[in-house]
Design goal:
Radius of gyration: 30 Å
Distance between the termini: 73 Å
Helix content: 55-70%
Strand content: under 5%
Oligomer: single chain
Structural class: mainly alpha
Number of helices: 39
Largest sheet: none
Length: about 650
């Protein structure tokens, strides 16, 4: 682009008037559609220049001019829209386009620290190779060390670092091992071809073990020049074997560990993975080895699983022992304080049990609530309330970012509206974020309100985290279906966080995340037409169908909300199988026996959410319980399932 054109672009930005509400939403909607299609002749800027969203049209116009657009113009736009995600998007687009065009001085001119995303990071660091060589070398090695292919944008950076020796043969070998571990054979073979002859024994060993993992026992204990290939080879080889055959991996490692001279940190990496998967797969005759290495690993996931294995066997001394071996911060969690209390109780130490129950009961969680009930105490909500007046809400309403959010909602751009809103929340102080949450609550923006509490970390603002969204519909369809309405609210809060258009990767849709097949089946069951993929997004219909589906699960498990909730997440077939495999007297032990972490976490979240919803509705947690006595005391086995 000629420099005169660049000056005109700068003038175009500089002359934009102050945003107001003068232009119509209809004109802006048409202009934005034309801008996305690059049909600039359809856009009348004078008709939209006063609209709060005119910057979105300008964004598309300027992006289309990259990389010829001057960095001064880009920075002018970024500064003008610094309170909007448009600024970050424009900066990212400029880094992409300038980088692809190898206009590295322009990359430096528009950058503001390391960007996100591998491609942009590679452009950024390539642009700083000469001005910040040490920082670039460190960043380049970080980008290099991955088992996956990196974007083409990284090729110039890697080429320069290879030429100056930063990426040497050892770095190439380490990445080859990461690629092998990740199952990326194409990348692994490519990298192997880049190594010098000094690495041939290591390459031959890798190829042998890749074809026949059983030969790992016989592999050399020194690979590569000065044994430089040894640690990364054995880490990759063991990781692969652990995932393919954990029992065999344990046997191999027992024969290898003593004769390998690995650094303690390298050995811990292997043993942590091996111990964890030995517990996951319940490898026979592995527990003694796991118990011997576990105290040295400081692995929260392995400690947690070791306690669960002790709980399954109801080895209460083991439960107490392994919880007290956990890192101190992990022990403080209500879950482990609860089980430490249960173990102490079983071992006859009632004083210790009460102390640990008290520590757990101070926390707002499934196990915190369960501990409170053990002590006969109200559930600890730890609820914070904040009050804002009309003047505060008017001040928020006048913020340009809020006006853009509302304008985007009016023209049907909910995704962009969410981006605008979350951008302003993330930039806000804690007090300002609370005022924004209050405004969202007043507007009835339920999904956006929940996202505000997450983005701002307002964990104790329960009225905002658990708003009375679709309250009348839950009460109505809960009453007609005979389902606890607070359970319906809790499931919806967990499933979609009140986004009526939520779509999961598996295809579940709407507030209660119904699969299309389930929605079709339940609709026929109650005499309705198949709502189709879009009809099921209607909030009231989704709640009606979801409550009916949940009613059927409750009937299947004799009204047991714990089992029904698990079935809502994992499917009744799996829950039936778990109940057939187990016979457990205590509800808490059944929860810990659920083999899927997702379902374990889901059940705990939903049941604690249900208690919170009921407490908020009642004005306090007095009289609110996590589960009914029958749900706590029933034996969780196949007798709980009513057969069709």
């Amino acid at each position: 682009m000629p420099r005169t054109a660049r000056v005109l672009s700068i003038a175009f930005i500089a002359c934009l008037p102050t945003i107001s509400w003068a232009a119509s939403d209809s004109a802006l909607r048409d202009a934005l559609e034309a801008a996305r299609d690059k049909q600039w002749n359809r856009i009348n800027m004078s008709a939209i220049e006063d609209h709060p969203l005119s910057g979105y049209v300008t964004y598309h116009r300027l992006r289309d001019q990259l990389p010829e657009l001057s960095p001064e113009t880009v920075n002018r736009y970024i500064d003008t829209h610094s309170d909007s995600p448009l600024s970050d998007w424009m900066r990212g687009q400029a880094i992409d386009q300038y980088g692809e065009a190898k206009q590295y001085s322009d990359v430096r001119a528009v950058s503001n620290g390391e960007p996100t995303g591998a491609a942009r990071q590679c452009h950024y660091h390539t642009a700083h190779l000469d001005s910040a060589p040490q920082q670039t070398a460190e960043a380049g090695l970080r980008l290099w060390h991955t088992g996956q292919s990196q974007p083409n944008a990284c090729d110039p950076l890697f080429k320069r670092l290879r030429a100056n020796g930063t990426i040497d043969d050892e770095a190439i070998w380490e990445r080859q091992m990461l690629a092998w571990q990740a199952g990326n054979s194409r990348l692994a073979d490519y990298l192997g071809n880049q190594l010098s002859g000094a690495w041939q024994t290591a390459i031959d060993t890798y190829e042998t073990i890749d074809s026949d993992p059983q030969k790992l026992r016989e592999a050399p204990t020194c690979l590569g020049p000065e044994c430089a290939a040894t640690a990364s080879f054995y880490q990759a080889a063991m990781q692969r074997l652990i995932h393919e055959d954990t029992s065999q991996a344990l046997s191999v490692w027992r024969s290898l560990a003593e004769r390998l001279s690995l650094l303690p940190s390298d050995q811990r990496l292997i043993e942590e993975e091996l111990a964890y998967y030995a517990l996951v797969h319940e490898v026979p005759n592995s527990m003694a080895w796991v118990d011997s290495v576990l105290p040295h690993l400081e692995s929260e996931r392995a400690f947690g699983l070791r306690v669960r294995r002790a709980l399954q066997a109801q080895q209460w001394e083991g439960v107490r022992h392994w919880i007290t071996q956990m890192p101190a911060e992990q022990q403080k969690d209500a879950r482990w304080q609860y089980w430490l209390a249960r173990a102490s109780e079983q071992l006859g130490d009632q004083t210790a049990a009460e102390s640990h129950f008290q520590q757990a009961a101070s926390q707002r969680s499934f196990y915190g609530f369960a501990a409170a009930e053990r002590l006969g105490q109200p559930l600890a909500l730890n609820n914070e309330r904040f009050y804002f007046d009309d003047a505060s809400r008017e001040r928020i309403a006048q913020q340009p970012a809020v006006q853009r959010t509302q304008a985007l909602m009016r023209i049907g751009e909910d995704g962009l509206a969410n981006s605008e809103w979350l951008h302003v929340v993330q930039q806000a102080s804690t007090e300002e974020a609370r005022a924004l949450a209050d405004f969202a609550a007043e507007q009835g923006w339920h999904a956006r309100l929940v996202q505000t509490t997450i983005a701002a970390g307002l964990w104790d603002a329960l009225e905002w985290r658990f708003p009375q969204a679709y309250h009348d519909e839950f009460i109505h369809w809960g009453r007609l279906s005979g389902v606890d309405p607070y359970l319906l609210m809790a499931i919806t809060r967990r499933e979609s966080a009140y986004n009526p258009n939520a779509l999961s990767p598996a295809g579940a849709r709407g507030l209660m995340q119904l699969m299309p097949g389930t929605a079709s089946q339940v609709s026929r069951q109650i005499g309705l037409e198949d709502p189709g993929a879009y009809g099921v997004l209607d909030p009231e219909l989704n709640i009606r169908l979801g409550s009916t589906y949940l009613r059927d699960k409750l009937q299947r498990y004799q009204g047991n909300r714990l089992a029904a909730t698990a079935a809502y997440n994992a499917g009744p077939g799996r829950v039936d199988r778990w109940l057939g495999d187990y016979s457990i007297e205590a509800f808490d032990l059944f929860v810990e026996r659920i083999p899927y972490r997702e379902t374990r976490d889901y059940v705990q979240a939903v049941l604690s959410y249900r208690a919170i919803f009921e407490s908020l509705a009642n004005g306090s947690s007095d009289g609110v319980s996590l589960l009914r006595d029958g749900e706590k005391q029933v034996r969780y086995n196949r007798a709980l399932v009513l057969r069709d």
